[in-house]
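Task: sequence design from structure.
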């Protein structure tokens, strides 16, 4: 396995992006794939706009370079989530059981730790692997690391890599990268939205990407049953002003029974946290989404007073300072109690 030394120091102190050596090693590794060689692209389980947009945008870029075979995959499925239907490059997706066992090169996108690759984590033992990510909590589990905790989205790192490979942006690549950027920045509202982010967005839009269409598809489309489901779940929200050392916690939960009552699929719940986190009386917001009898996918957000990635990591998950998550085990009140305890 090719390995490039990375700057030393605690993970959370590393705020700079990839070194020139790391960029050069990644470009060299990609260019070294022989004609007809197999390049495998991976992203994390339950992929979001940044994971899929970064992976497929890069995949299309690699196809433009030509000469290599390209597969894209994530653990647990082969489909685009409904909110991302129409994303270019979806034809590169293969089911996990079809993924090559012996690729020449593996790149993974938006993956902070190997566990987020599930059943596909073993592919990282390919002769060369490149981790492309922007999580400060990245555990640097590959051979070459393009990790920029200062990047608003993994797609920002991908755009840098495509530039260095000499791949010109076209409207399809740009649509993937734009969806990644607009989802991870919360439509350019979150704190990482720098002037450079808008400059990148301008480059993407200049190719002909249609932002209004994308926004409607990705953020503003929901079945009527989901509108009613949100009503029921938001109605049972709990505000705890004294939690999180007085900064306040607001939380709610959605069960599998709720999904059945309103005839909805789990993906619709992903937008729920955005309605809960509006609560001005709480710095921290939290949504528990039941995935099995005593198992919950937990989403956490902070307005700035609390590092929720610390809480998520302590409870077995990960994420960013202001947006993180983990898998909670037990009854909902027990999971909330564990969060409360970590927050205090
Ligand atoms: P969301 O709440 O939107 O599902 O996730 C917010 C962020 O938290 C994601 O970008 C991801 O970095 C992180 N995250 C969410 N769930 C998990 C999890 O179960 N494990 C880890 N390691 N990170 C998670
Ligand atoms: Mn991301």
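Answer:
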């Amino acid at each position: 396995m090719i390995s490039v030394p990375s700057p030393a120091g605690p993970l959370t102190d590393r705020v700079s992006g990839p070194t020139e050596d790391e960029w050069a090693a990644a470009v060299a590794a990609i260019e070294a794939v022989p004609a007809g060689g197999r390049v495998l692209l991976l992203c994390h389980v339950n992929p979001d706009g940044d994971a899929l947009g970064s992976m497929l945008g890069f995949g299309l870029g690699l196809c433009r370079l030509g000469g290599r075979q390209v597969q894209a995959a994530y653990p647990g499925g082969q489909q685009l989530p409904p909110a991302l239907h129409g994303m270019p490059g979806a034809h590169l997706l293969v089911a996990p059981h079809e993924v090559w066992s012996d690729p020449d090169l593996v790149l993974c996108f938006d993956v902070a730790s190997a566990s987020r690759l599930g059943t596909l984590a073993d592919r990282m033992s390919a002769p060369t692997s490149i981790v492309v990510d922007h999580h400060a909590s990245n555990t640097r589990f590959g051979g070459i690391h393009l990790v920029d905790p200062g990047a608003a989205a993994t797609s920002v790192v991908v755009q840098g890599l495509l530039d260095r490979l000499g791949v010109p942006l076209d409207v399809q690549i740009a649509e993937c990268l734009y969806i990644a950027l607009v989802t991870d920045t919360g439509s350019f509202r979150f704190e990482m939205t720098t002037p450079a982010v808008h400059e990148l967005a301008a480059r993407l839009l200049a190719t002909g990407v249609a932002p209004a269409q994308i926004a409607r598809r990705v953020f503003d489309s929901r079945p009527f049953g989901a509108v009613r489901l949100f009503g029921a779940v938001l109605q049972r929200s709990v505000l705890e002003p004294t939690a999180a050392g007085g900064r306040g916690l607001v939380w709610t939960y959605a069960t599998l029974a709720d999904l059945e009552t309103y005839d909805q699929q789990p993906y619709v719940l992903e937008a729920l946290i955005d309605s809960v986190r509006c609560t001005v009386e709480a710095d921290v917001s939290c949504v528990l989404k039941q995935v099995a009898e005593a198992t919950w996918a937990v989403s956490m957000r902070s307005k700035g007073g609390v590092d929720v990635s610390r809480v998520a990591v302590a409870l077995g998950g990960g994420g960013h300072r202001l947006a993180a998550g983990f898998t909670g085990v037990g009854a909902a009140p027990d999971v909330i109690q564990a969060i409360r305890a970590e927050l205090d």
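Residues 49-65 form the longest helix (17 residues).
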